[in-house]
Write a structure and sequence with these properties.
receptor, immunoglobulin domain, Ig-like_dom, disulfide bond, six-stranded mixed sheet, seven-stranded mixed sheet
Length: about 575
């Protein structure tokens, strides 16, 4: 029966020979069919029993096979090799090779490195025994890798030799003898070239490398470390210094071996920049003059060889330990086109051409494929005439003076030297500029430090015998007011202001003071505004009190009237 046949069952009975006889019914019986399933525990139990049965069958088969092999004199069991897995180079290690106690013949055991049967590392003959012990002095070249033990029966070629499973042995050779080699070439190279350093070790296994520059670790993010090589693709002068490599390996995380290479000094040179050419005039005697031509480069590794050319003809050259060199060239009525050349290695740099010609004074710039700066000097005129001063000033948003430009001019002279003095102290050339051959300007901000007296002194570049001093000018800063005046009376001054709104020199009125009329108008308007506000406030207070009294009287009359009516 199945679950679909569940229900109520009843038996009917009547005579078989009389079809018209009545049926007699039995009591109804309720039948319910239930489908039974195996539980999880029952499934696991069945699977476990099957596994045990399979294991038993496999064991019986193996035992039967071994029994067959024991009966077969041509079979030898596989040996088993035991020993350490890691050792130092040169250690003495003990290995053990076992063979089941069969057959009764003598057995030869040999230890080889996998793949190299030509080199017998150790051997032992078993005489009525099943275990052999080997003592070996191991080294990296011979013993590092997979080892195996091969068993063979002596004097019986019918029994085939058997080999054990592989046994891995790692030999650690302590690192020694680190040296550093420059694979890219010389230890001195110019910027932009590639630098490759290689760290060599005399011995050592599983070695890791680190790099030092001037005894400081090199960051891996800034340099390309390739195992035992260091690559710097584009060198700069900051890569100069003493390089060394540190080689490290370890044994069983208990012993660490470290060796550093000797330092190698690497020098990265700067290419010399294109030199600038300039000149000053020297007076050799009363009738003769010379030009002191200076060649100067802004950068470049020393030493630098400077050469001076007149056209294509070399005039002079000098190798110096500085970034500039000077050459004396006599001035004559013949033209000279000068050019500087600078060299410190692979590259030669040239300056612009400077043409010197004794004639009329003309300044011009013109180009022929490149820029040629033509400086033509006229007949030398010595310093002469008075030295005068003038000024102009700049104001800020609040009309206060923020800076002053003081000009110094000589009446005549072609090659002059200007020197500025503040309170009789010589100033540097940071804020002074040469406007022309005969004029210089000094820029000063207006503050307490800039207050004091100013004057300039002018002399010939080629002759310090004549020095002319200008009149003195006084710059004053007291809080906000600024006064600029000279120490001499106005009638004796040659200074003229450049702006019509500037204060008259010699006046006692400060530049930054507001007119009295403007101040009076502003304060009058402010006072009038205060009076108006005060009047409005007073009127409001008086009106508020009067209204309050009126409302109180009205309320009292209404209350009296109400009380009277109620009575």
């Amino acid at each position: 029966m199945n679950p679909g046949e569940s229900g109520s069952y009843q038996c009917w009975v009547r005579d078989s020979f009389n079809d018209s006889s009545p049926w007699f019914k039995s009591p109804a019986v309720q039948v319910r069919m239930i489908e039974e399933t195996l539980t999880t525990v029952e499934h696991i139990s069945i699977l476990f029993c099957c596994f045990l049965l399979l294991t038993l069958v496999a064991g019986v088969c193996v035992m039967a096979s071994m029994a067959d092999r024991r009966r077969d004199a041509s079979y030898l069991e596989r040996p088993r090799l035991y020993g350490p897995n890691v050792a130092l180079n040169g250690d003495i290690l003990e290995f053990r090779c076992e063979v089941p106690p069969f057959p009764p013949e003598d057995i030869l055991l040999q230890v080889y490195k996998v793949g190299d049967r030509s080199n017998n590392l150790a051997e032992h003959t078993l005489l009525n025994e099943s275990v052999a012990h080997f003592s070996m002095v191991v080294n990296y070249a011979t013993h590092d890798g997979d080892l195996e033990c091969m068993a063979s029966v002596l004097n019986n070629s019918l029994i085939q030799p058997t080999v054990s499973h592989r046994h891995y042995l790692k030999i650690v050779d302590p690192v020694e003898g680190a040296t550093l080699a420059v694979q890219s070439g010389a230890v001195e190279l110019f910027e932009g070239k590639k630098l490759v350093l290689h760290c060599n070790v005399k011995s050592g296994t599983d070695v890791s490398y680190s790099w030092l520059l001037d005894n400081q670790p090199l960051p891996a993010i800034a340099f390309h470390h390739a195992h035992q090589e260091l690559h710097i693709n584009r060198t700069t002068p900051k890569h100069s210094g003493s390089y060394s490599c540190v080689a490290t390996n370890r044994f069983n995380a208990t012993k660490i071996y470290t060796v550093a290479s000797p330092e190698v000094v690497i020098t990265v040179k700067e290419y010399v920049s294109s030199p600038d050419v300039s000149y000053t005039v020297l007076k050799t005697d009363s009738q003769n003059y010379s030009a002191l031509v200076t060649c100067k480069s802004s950068r470049g590794t020393l030493p630098i060889t400077f050469s001076l050319y007149n056209g294509e003809t070399p005039v002079a050259n000098e190798t110096v330990e500085t970034q500039h060199a000077a050459f004396v060239v006599p001035l004559s009525h013949r033209s000279a086109v000068l050019r500087c050349q600078a060299e410190n290695g692979d590259r030669i740099a040239y300056s612009e051409r400077m043409a010197l010609h004794v004639g009329e004074c003309v300044f011009s710039i013109r180009g022929f494929g490149s820029c040629y700066l033509m400086l033509q000097a006229r007949h030398l005129v010595p310093l002469g005439g008075p030295v005068t001063m003038r000024y102009k000033y700049s104001t800020g948003e609040d009309f206060s003076v923020t800076s002053v430009e003081i000009f110094c001019r000589a009446a005549q002279g072609t090659h002059l030297r200007f020197q500025w003095f503040h309170n009789s102290s010589l100033l540097d050339d940071t804020w002074s500029f040469r406007l022309s051959n005969q004029e210089s300007v000094l820029l000063r901000s207006v503050d307490r430090r800039s207050a004091g007296t100013y004057h300039c002194e002018v002399s010939d570049l080629f002759d310090n015998a004549t020095v002319i001093q200008s009149e003195k000018m006084y710059l004053e800063k007291e809080g906000i007011p600024v006064a600029l005046r000279t120490l001499q009376p106005v009638s004796t001054l040659l200074l003229q202001p450049l702006q019509p709104k500037c204060l008259i020199i010699g006046s006692n009125s400060p530049l930054n003071r507001l007119p009295i009329t403007v101040v009076a108008v502003v304060f009058s308007c402010f006072a009038l505004l205060l009076i108006s506000v005060f009047s409005c406030c007073c009127s409001g207070v008086i009106y508020s009190e009067s209204a309050a009294r009126t409302n109180m009287c009205t309320y009292a009359l209404q209350l009296t009237y109400a009380i009277t009516n109620s009575r």
